[in-house]
Amino acid sequence: MIRSVVRGIGSALPRRIMKNTDFEGVLETSDEWIAQRTGIRQRHIASDDETTASLGEAAARAALDNAGLTPADIDLIVLATSTPNNTFPATAVEIQNRLGMHHGFAFDMQAVCSGFVYAVATADLYIRGGLARRVLVIGSETFSRILDWTDRSTCVLFGDGAGALILEAQEGEGTIADRGVLAASLRSDGVHKDKLYVDGGPSTTGTVGLLRMEGREVFKHAVGMITDVIEATFSQAGITAEDLDWFVPHQANKRIIDASARKLGIADEKVVVTVNLHGNTSAASVPLALAVAVADGRVKKGDLVLLEAMGGGFTWGAVLLRW
Q1: pLDDT (tens digit, 9 = 90+) per residue, 136-195?
Q2: Which of 52, 65, 185, 199 has its CA 20 to 30 A from that of 111?
């Protein structure tokens, strides 16, 4: 059978680093308060000349270099983002043009923090369906553009960045030993919309709007939803938590990460955590964390890796792949 195998990975971060201490004196908060409740120590914030498209392009080029490929080798670009450069056209099309790619097709996917997991699952379907042989999957965000910088409950949580994977069609045996995407489970439930949303949009206010969140409500639902979708993915693949080599969760809050891993029986040493370095970068969160773990040698060829995320909507999902 056809499997969607990872050929390359890349990432990109804005130049500016904003530490927790930078909020002190501006907001009623402190480094200790933020770190204790979230695990976040710093985040990257985009400058005026850094956009979702430019960061996405940089991550894409890094992934192409890592794979030893060029834009001519790519058939499809799927960009996960909630902070596009324009309402339309899709920012994926702008990245396509920036790469000098004038063939194939490109589109954006909007599932907020779950966007990259949704995009990997979608790319896998395009590959297995024969519509693309190589897909560039990007998660890129500039959430700093939609934050209320007077709201200490939200503005300290988020950052900017981009990560990218290249998936390629390769033949597998149809077993759990195959490399590539092995299983995926996606969910959403719009009843939770008002718990995490942006209070604007073209069809309602005619403005971009700002992020609003009921933090306690999000936390209350997060662990249960995450474990539910992961257990469904385990069931598809016929594995247990003990079979995993690495768990790469959405980097929103260290407490949520720890509670989810504990409930699933995933050992602490198998969990990739970068929330301290990047904050919550929404759709860029999972690929950024994965890129760190690949670069430092933790994730190696043949490892069984679980990706997971939950975002506004609510949306949530998991993808299991063998590196």
Answers
A1: 999 999 999 999 999 999 999 999 999 999 999 999 999 999 999 999 999 999 999 999
A2: 65
As annotated, the residues of the chain forming the CATH 3.40.47.10 domain(s) are 2-171, 180-322
Distance CA 323, CA 320 (A): 10
The proportion of the chain whose per-residue pLDDT surpasses 70, expressed as a percent, equals: 100
Which residues are tagged catalytic? 113, 250, 280
Cβ-based burial of 1 (10 A; exposed 0-12, middle 13-18, buried ≥19): exposed
pTM beyond 0.85: the answer is yes
Arch. (CATH architecture) of 180-322: 3-Layer(aba) Sandwich (3.40)
- Of 186, 302, 291, nearest to 248 by C-alpha is 291
Q: Are 40 and 276 in contact (CB under 8 A)?
A: yes
Burial 279-299 (b: 16+ CB within 10 A, else e): bbbbbbbbbbbbbbbbeeebb
Mean pLDDT of 236-250: 98
Give me the phi and psi of 306, to 5 degrees please. Answer: -110, 125
